[in-house]
Amino acid sequence: MIDKGKPRGMTIAELQKGYQDKCFSVKEVIQSCLQHINNLDNPIGAFITVCNETALEAAEKLDEGLGRGEDIGPLGGIPVAVKDNICTRNIRTTCASRMLEHFVPPYDATVIKLLKNAGAIVIGKTNMDEFAMGAASCTSAFKKIRNPWDFSKVPGGSSGGSAAALAAGFVPLALGSDTGGSIRQSASFCGVVGLKPTYGAVSRFGLVAFASSLDQIGPMTRTVEDCALAFSILKGRDPLDATSVEYDGVFDYANALDSGVKGLKIGIPGQCLEQVDEEIAESLLKAGRVYQESGVQVEWFSLPEMDLCPAAYLVISSAEAATGLAKYDGIRYGYCTEAANNPDLDGMIRRNRSEGFGEEVRRRIMLGTYVQREECSSYYQRAVSIRNKIKNAIEQAFKRFDLILTPTSPVLPFEPGDNKGYLYNEARLGRFTVMANLTGIPALSLPGGFSRAGLPIGLQLAGDYFSEDRLLRAAYCLEQRLGLFMQTACVEGDEA
Amino acid sequence: MDIDQKTMKHIADLAKLMLTNQEASQLAEEFNHILSELKGIQAEQANQPDTSRIQPNMQYLRKDEIKPFTDRKALFQNTRLEQDGHIAVPRIPELE
Fold first, then answer.
1. Would the pTM count as exceeding 0.90?
2. Domain total for chain A?
3. Domain residues of chain B, as ranges?
4. Among residues A158, A244, A318, A445, which one is catalytic?
């Protein structure tokens, strides 16, 4: 429930209105936000670092600006939680790994610069799967993350800390990264909104890479309107990221959201009802009916290539991860073993990497190294072929449809350990999400219902390249019709 | 090709990781399973162009200009030990 006297749980739009009406100062909002995190985050584990002092300093400066009648920016005074694989100047950036436990970047990622220029305040760095590798946020080297809706369940991964911080009402805006569905799957498990933009739409400069041809930074929020506002700040070309592209025009996403969906065509792959939790399938069908009632033409079609994606994703992402993570040897910076009996330089590096990286990261490096051997290169080529195949299938689909609707995850939030220990099982959880990474199209997860046990169910909308406006418009329509954005998780220990 | 424990140990050498025999066996079994998913699709999709770049002709390169970064202190802030303006690295027996 939203209480105007307590900024916790408020959306970006509500906080902005509060500032406008002088209901509270920026400092009061940030103080309240920090207090809630410091008091309530212990059982959740959403944050690795909380920026108590720097956040308050930034708030005081904005209040001074407000006092002088200045415009404090489109995200002025909005607290933002940042996934801990996005570099923040003079704030520890660990990737939830022992390898980078003490790493303090001397620079800001471009997305952080953009947020700060827009007036947002970095409140802390969020917990995650180590180096973003995982689908349950169980591989952090520091602490587990619990789902605020049900502490016995995982928050999804790898952006589980960002999603949990939103679900607990600590912040109205968080950044995540999405290599195979990390933003969307976490958003789905925690009942929030998460957008993986078109590849190249948002700069990745300052993101610690997992797999560069798949990685994308995106906003996570509690409402579609907030997501649109955040995306309008983040998008655009960055000279420091050669893969980033111009995003035409100064499009005002937040104001375009109301323009309706009538006449749109949405396709639902028939594969979405196979090996999918019954309650998730029910939510998908309900969403289809809601769209039909809103004047959208909804059709079923077949997308069998979808089921080839998890294996291709594992091979491509692991190969890129093995290459990208080869630089961590613990010699100049990063984890260095305490053991004194290293036989030689190679032995010491081997020990640094084996002790500095967790089990999941080591597994992916091993798989990635294996498929890069000359005698095994056919596996990589086959994975690339699947990537082509799904890309062609998606291009054909978008000749018929404006958007594709699927569940975000085939399963409900589960207990830690339920899907652990087998890489392929985890990849199968991304059955509906990885196709957006392999092809580069934008996709968004939004709350689509609740299970009978009260667990969030996420639905995914995917669109053609650079069609975020349409995607957000359709998501807004469903969100408003379902009315789920009014619900937030009640955190244990909360006096409310 | 079936992956065995010996292959896994070799891969660990290439990846500069330590691996116990038990870990090597587990990974071999797991990798065989993952890669078996890919075996069936080889022939029909051969020789297609790589789509690892999403949109062709959309890569922009910066001008090749020198932009000195002069904040030496910031560059050294993540090293464990600095000595006489250099990064001090751990002692390596073979180099003595």
1. yes
2. 1
3. 5-39
4. A158
